[in-house]
Amino acid sequence: MQTHRIAYDFLVLSSGIEYMEEAIPGFAEAQGAITVGFRAFEQQAVWRALEAHPGGDIMLSVPPVPYRCPIAAYARAALIAQWMDRRAMPGKVILLDQNPAIPIGGPTIQAAFRDLYPRRLEHHQGVKIIRIDAKKKLIETDRRVLTYGTPSMVPPMRAAPLLSPRAWANVGWQ
Question: What pLDDT does 12 receive?
């Protein structure tokens, strides 16, 4: 294998993300029953889950910062609320936000939620997700236990292993 060296002033590596499934008890066991949608091709699974939505509330979550694309979870909540409105579906979107404040565009997002979807979208900020029970369709938070019809939960994220200290130690870099 031939190698080449390239000089640079700054090196930026984009490793992608890795879900920290262990951060929410029950999340790893619920794979297949809970869609995420933050990595390539996962959006298709979210769409299939919505198309098969049996009714009831659609549960979404926002992971604690830092995470990929901070606006995405809020945009998804609004799009799903609009989708439910257009179909006159019963239920609402419940957005469990693990952050005390919206990290980007907070006033605009809050105004959109309030003005466009006042009865369709519930946004709960500063919520800690304690555990998920996919068999019973329950999400326990530090405030209450919620039931859902369809979940799309986003666990906390970290950089993919390319940027982990262990990966760099294997090649002799510190």
Answer: 82
SS3 letters across 27-78: CHHHECCEECCCCCCHHHHHHHHHHCCCCCCEEEEECCCCCCCCCHHHHHHH
Q: What is the C-alpha to C-alpha distance for residues 165 and 37, in angstroms, rounded to an integer?
A: 27
Residue 68 predicted with pLDDT over 80: yes
Contact 67, 154 (CB under 8 A): yes
- Res 4: pLDDT: 82
Q: pLDDT band at 3, cuts 50/70/90?
A: confident
- Residue found under tokens 């666990």: 155
Alpha-carbon 57 to chain mean position: 17
Residues 6+ apart with CB under 8 A from 105: 71, 74
Enter the pTM of the model: 0.84
Give the number of residues written for the chain: 174
| DSSP, residue by residue, 104-138 | SSHHHHHHHHHHH-TTTEEEE-SPPEEEEETTTTE
63, exposed or middle or buried, with CB in 10 Å at 0-12, 13-18, 19+?
buried
Residue for token pair 């439910």: 84
- All domains of the chain in start order, with CATH: 17-170 (3.50.50.60)
